[in-house]
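Input for the complex:
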Amino acid sequence: MAKKTRKPIDDRLLDTAIEQFGRNGLEGASTRAIAAAAGTAMSSITYHYGGKEGLYLAAARRIAEQIAGRLAGTLQGAPDPEQLDAEDALAQLVVLADAALGLMLSPESAAWSRFIIREQAEPTEGFEILWDRVMGPVTTRLVRLVQRAGPAGLRPADARVRAVTLFGQVLVFRVARAAALRVTGWRDIGPAQSTEIRRILHAQVRAIVTAT
Amino acid sequence: MAKKTRKPIDDRLLDTAIEQFGRNGLEGASTRAIAAAAGTAMSSITYHYGGKEGLYLAAARRIAEQIAGRLAGTLQGAPDPEQLDAEDALAQLVVLADAALGLMLSPESAAWSRFIIREQAEPTEGFEILWDRVMGPVTTRLVRLVQRAGPAGLRPADARVRAVTLFGQVLVFRVARAAALRVTGWRDIGPAQSTEIRRILHAQVRAIVTAT
DNA sequence: GTCTATACTACGATAGAC
DNA sequence: GTCTATCGTAGTATAGAC
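Predicted:
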């Protein structure tokens, strides 16, 4: 099923599927509504993806592809953590955090994140796809950078937990966005707010990683 | 399912509703399934709550009640942030973070969090209920403590963003639990892992809040 | 390849028995 | 207060026209 056709129907179906599966879940979303929103007949889903489940997994693959594509610019040619000193590792951490935050704040990621959060709470085969293609590689790098940038003698297990909490600081702006808006008093998270978050995030990445 | 003969039918309906609405959403969950799992007829939902939507909002109220009850021990009689010096405010922050983490890690909160996360991504009237009764009061206190514990001259807007990221560090263990388990290599988050997280969290709360 | 038509199941709401 | 029965709607899947 891993086809890379450029047929508009396929693409529109996938985009709509990500949106609606993210919003309503595998069971909650209806193939009729997805097909209608994509401007085609429901049976096209059967034809192209074998059914609802096939469409769902294809949507997961698509999300992984798109996130990987967005992060490619940051990860391509990025230095190997093992060969960095603490200061350079910290700088690379900030770069990675920036990229992750950009992802979380991008409007395009709203649908992806809904889909992914669902998979976190109730993992299916879709989680494996997402983990293997995006989350795994990125978190591996994240942990290595934390290990490198952290205080000498930082236990590997600690570095992993720190990496998770680091990720949480970025994640919260997507996952708890409604609450974050109320706490900050912002009406939306636009460029101005994004800059503010980034500034504070940089300081805190430094503080978290270097804390003894 | 454990037999709870003493529990009134509407309580069993609410507990089941939280579980199933959290898992499948308002649209995805079916009143038939909820009623069946609660051991009653579907029409009981109409009788007690007026319909599906009424049950959903009642579930939101129930979640708010239960979380408030769990935090009551921590918040009751807790000192007013405005009257604390930086050090005591930091200590109170740690107490609050501990309570929040305990909430996130508790098995009972799994269903609640699914429900709440859904409301964050797609807020409905249920979000207002949750905000007014729990999130609002708790985050207000959180922001005040951060302001108090932070460096002198910390801008209020900064304190709010820091409060959000602080919350993210705790939230991540519930929301991105599947990923967190893979990153840490843990099979589950039990007492041992909980202690480890707590230890690191304390250090990082301190680091985040006092960072200049 | 994309459509319409159809078979079958499950949904939420409601009426009425008890 | 809780049940069963039933209505109209909407769901997925599939067959077949074009």
